Amino acid sequence: MRSEQEMLKLIMAFARNDENIRAVLLNGSRANPNVKKDILQDFDIACLVKDVSPYIRNDKIPEYFGETAIVQEPENMQDPPAENNGHYAYLMQFMDGNRIDLSFYPLHPMEQVLNDSLTVVLLDKDDVLPTLPPSNDGDYLPKQPTEKQFQDCCNEFWWMNCYVAKGLWRGELTYAKWTMEVVQEQLLRMLTWYFGIQTDFKKAAGKQGKYIKEDVELEIWVELEKIYADSNFENIWKSLFIAGNLFRRVANVVAQHFGFQYPRKDDENVSAFLRRIKDLPKAAKEI
């Protein structure tokens, strides 16, 4: 596997040898001083160029950087749809384990590229870039919820619980698992606010809450692990009730901290409804 130094040297040679490229920025986790380094971190590279067109659907670009396992060009896809904001990108996974997400942006306007607190300038051929503050994860810190955001999260969580129960009663595994993912998403959202309270909203929770474990009670994380069930219907039922208990616990803390009203009645009604559906015979004609 090529080292970080080798990859950066390769990237810089690519940029320096191309007159069209005028500046190069490093974003993402490798620009974050608070993230522990590891061999699977991407190289998130943004090039500011005079003309983007030479980099559109250009097979020679991935070839330059090495043997690829797979390449994705988001701006050349229909599903998901392209952003169509004037840039072009190559997401490149290499056979040696390295990965480069290489994007090309018009030199002007450059604000769309610079408006990221995780930004390190690697190259500025014309000294046109403004002085940037030291790279930091300020843009990625959890934000304190408004009362409407809190109430919407609670409503969506308990509302989707009913869908999971319906899917489980019907024996619809894929539907139940899909709706359970929405329940997990809302629980994670609430847990992020809880994590923010524990850290005074001064520490990033990471993508999909991957750093939450570091600053919440061990028993909370242990319970969170239990909600990611397998395909066994009984285990999914268990994970659904565990998710409800955990959501109730952390949501009440968040509500108390911010002076919000936790929707206790929704919680009680839905929890009772879930128990009825779980015990409902498969041949039942009414609830």
Average pLDDT, all residues: 95
Tally of extended strands?
6
Q: What is the number of domains?
A: 2
CATH topology of the largest domain: Four Helix Bundle (Hemerythrin (Met), subunit A)
Enumerate the spans where pLDDT stays under 50 for 5 or more consecutive residues.
none
Strand order of the largest sheet: 3-4-5-2-1-6
Category by helix and strand content: alpha+beta
**CATH architectural group of the largest domain:** Up-down Bundle
Q: Percent range for helical residues?
A: 40-55%
**Order of helical and strand elements:** HEEHEEEHEHHHHH
Total DSSP helices: 8
Principal-axes shape call = elongated
Instruction: Specify Rg, calculated over alpha carbons.
Output: 24 Å
Percentage of residues in strands: 5-15%
Q: What is the CATH C-level name of the largest domain?
A: Mainly Alpha
| Main sheet record | 6 strands, mixed
What is the CATH homologous superfamily assignment of the largest domain?
Answer: Nucleotidyltransferases  domain 2
First CA to last CA: what distance? 60 Å
Give a summary of the structure in a few sentences.
With 287 residues, the chain is of the alpha+beta class.
Search tags:
287 residues, alpha+beta, Beta Polymerase, domain 2, Four Helix Bundle (Hemerythrin (Met), subunit A), 2 domains, 6-stranded mixed β-sheet, 6 strands
Structure description:
The protein has 287 residues and is an alpha+beta fold. The protein has two domains: 4-139, Beta Polymerase, domain 2; 141-278, Four Helix Bundle (Hemerythrin (Met), subunit A), CATH 1.20.120. The protein is built from eight helices and six strands, in the order H-E-E-H-E-E-E-H-E-H-H-H-H-H. The model has no long low-confidence stretch (mean pLDDT 95).
